[in-house]
Specification:
Elements: H1 6-19, E1 37-39, E2 46-48, H2 72-86, H3 101-110, H4 130-138, E3 142-143, E4 149-150
Antiparallel strand pairs: 1-2, 3-4
């Protein structure tokens, strides 16, 4: 249900409530849906999403193209990404243009710390071929013997 638009989220919320015979879903305010809530893993209770407070960066010169401001949608996506990452499973985020896919991943990777994880950004488009993708990955790797590669 995460790719649903606002009107469809209301319909999906209503459908879920019709199926919820155990009253497991949270009581929500008028005009809000299940999408505004999550189950806190430590308390196992429903809580409302609350994007983190964003502070304007200090400094004389700002690079506005690199400012990442958390939104409700990016906060949700970040939470799901973190939960999947804790399980050491791969994460794939899909969506239309402007849905914060790249921003979420940049915010996630910025919080990992350079001593834990190396990153390499590869941009894809409709013109990207499998060979181009493979070359972009292999260009950053050294063969270390047999089938072993490293950065």
């Amino acid at each position: 249900g995460a790719l649903l638009e606002a009107d469809d989220r209301m319909k999906f919320d209503q459908w879920l409530r019709e199926k919820d015979t155990n009253n497991a879903m949270p009581n929500v305010e008028e005009g809000t849906t299940i999408f505004e809530y999550f189950v806190n893993p430590s308390t196992l209770k429903w809580e409302k999403w609350d994007p983190p407070k964003w502070e304007y960066p200090s400094g004389e010169k700002l690079n506005f193209s690199n400012l990442l401001v958390p939104t409700m949608d990016s906060t949700r996506a970040m939470f799901v990404t973190k939960q999947i990452h804790k399980q050491k499973a791969p994460v794939m985020i899909v969506g239309a243009e402007g849905t914060a896919k790249t921003s979420v991943q940049l915010m996630f990777l910025a919080n990992q710390g350079g001593n834990k994880m190396l990153t390499k950004r590869i941009n894809f488009s409709s013109a990207t071929t499998p060979g181009m993708a493979q070359y972009s990955i292999e260009a950053e790797l050294d063969k270390r013997g047999g089938k072993n590669y490293g950065p």
